[in-house]
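Lab notebook, bench 4. Continuing the backlog of folding jobs that were queued last week. Each job is logged with the same field layout so the records can be merged later without manual cleanup. Today's entry covers Beta-propeller fold lactonase family protein, a 635-residue chain. Filled in by technician R.K.

JOB TYPE: sequence-to-structure
TARGET: Beta-propeller fold lactonase family protein
LENGTH: 635
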Amino acid sequence: MTGAAAGCQSENVTRDYAVNSDNIIQTHDGKTIFTANIDVNSVTFMDAKKKKVTAEVPVCKEPRQLTLSPDEEKLYVTCMYDNKVNVISVEDQEVTDSIKTGVEPYGVVTSQDGKLLYVANYRSDSLSVIDLEDEKTVKEIKTGNRPRTLAITADGSKLYVPEYLDAGIDVIDTKKQKVVKVIQLENSPDVSDVKKSQGIPNTLEQFVISPDGKTAWVPHMLTNVDTPVHFEETIFPAISVIDLKKDEEITEQRKELFTSINVKDKSDKAMIVSNPYDVVFQRDGSKAYALMSGSEDLVVFDLKRGGNAVQILRRIEGDNPRGMVLSKDGKTIYVHNAMSHDVATVETGGKLAFSQARLSGENEKLIQKDSLTPLVREGKKIFYSANSDEYAAEITGNNWMSCASCHADGDINGLSIMTAKGMRNVPSNVGTTENGLFMWDGSRDDFNDYLLTVQGEMGGMSELDPGKPIPSDVQHMFDAMFAYLDDPKSFPAPQSPYEDGKKLSADAAKGKELFEGKASCISCHAGSQFTDSTKAVDEDGKLTTKNISFLHDIGTGNTVDRASKGDARAGYLNPRDAKSFDTPTLRGIYDTAPYFHDGSAKTLEEAITRHQYKDKPNLSKGEVVQITQYLKSIE
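JOB STATUS: finished
OUTPUT FIELD FOLLOWS
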């Protein structure tokens, strides 16, 4: 099929309601549901009434979000790792075309008249405006850092583009085709009780416009960086509310623990939920439902009675619920579980004030075959889970946080968190099992040592003695997690928008020459992983924390860094001096700001300039720029 034929609508249909990009969407009549099956590389069609899969369509790598054309004849899905959008015929249930995008496309919506396709490019920091007549990009709009999902207003005049980590929301005037405002979510202020909600907003997962078009809800997390990391004091769930007339946050309406989200259990204790991901509204605006992907819960808000949470439906059946749609009559929510690849059904009880949501029936499986091995799948489930009841040992204390709460979608969260040893920049998981020693001070040489993180920071597995071997059933959990982290498909190094795949630019080529020569960066950042940490081995060639020859003092220590006497996992044979640090990988370094162990360098230029080491040459500003250009090209 030609590109023009694939993009055109059969009739002049104009949509008159707001839509947002999501991993699960439905036709306007609610009869057909579509899901993007993230790591299986397929899109599923499901008959909503029968709750039966009618087709599973193969698509390109890592499908993330979907949108329909206004006439609902075409389904568009972003393929994050293939840098394209697949076009699917809804009638024929097959891919008919592909459209090239920027690097790592994520969110996608069509214009209300169906003539344009908007695509948020996560790594390119841009929005592609694609003419669907000839399927060519007619404009690339520069956005803030890491644009992710998208939403378009009912009249089509504005697009909203949340910045995933920086908590800004770019407002795009679709007529002018430019960003006209950035709504910056406010920090939740510090309070004396560190166990109450506070911190910096980040990981903005969705932007859902209310039925009346006056507001939008944005599920995200808050990270408290002021106190030493602790599961009850660092990560908090939140939903921010945006006034769409003023394009401003209504700060007093933010939903947080323990104010708007404060539902008691049978023991009269507040129920903890984690990792907010998606929102749907009753069509009359009477209720809102928020999906918690980490704790695997559904939170119900009564908007006619103060707007607070009135119910927490604990434990959606399935693993890692990330998206949902509400039936046309408002009585049923279909929940998309991203790790078990199935759909769970929740009966809402409708719009009646005192009705209760409840699970209904068995889940419908969305895929024929999992692309991951059972062990890798189990490890991925654990990584994203904050469910305290599901595994051989608690992952987290009372559902507070998952691994993904700090390692956002497995990556960085752009923040530095206070620890007992000082501020620590949250690193990416790219190549983490191949980068040598673990932790910024290289104080761990075995993945099992992360028991200390689970116990001290996440509040889980507290019944285990860290100085003794891990029980076999819990060891299986660590093995699964390692298998997931070790799988090269789990965290591929991001493709750099600064690298065209053919040859380095003139500046980057000169930077490579300086990197390997005059500046001698390669003396530490060497090999395929660009780190010398892999050399920290004993006489038998086994990685060991006792070998401190490859920890380096480059003058980045600060007054809050603290020395350590070691830990029980290593028999206290791994003391650290608070000045020497492990060499981080440079793979994907262009998109892992801030830099250094404490995140104190905001740019690569600053990081290069601040490096202090023996016989460091004087580098001109131009040479620093050239080295930076080379670093940005490394994948």
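OBSERVATION: The helical segments are 3-7, 374-384, 451-458, 472-486, 506-516, 604-610, 621-633.
SIGNED: R.K.
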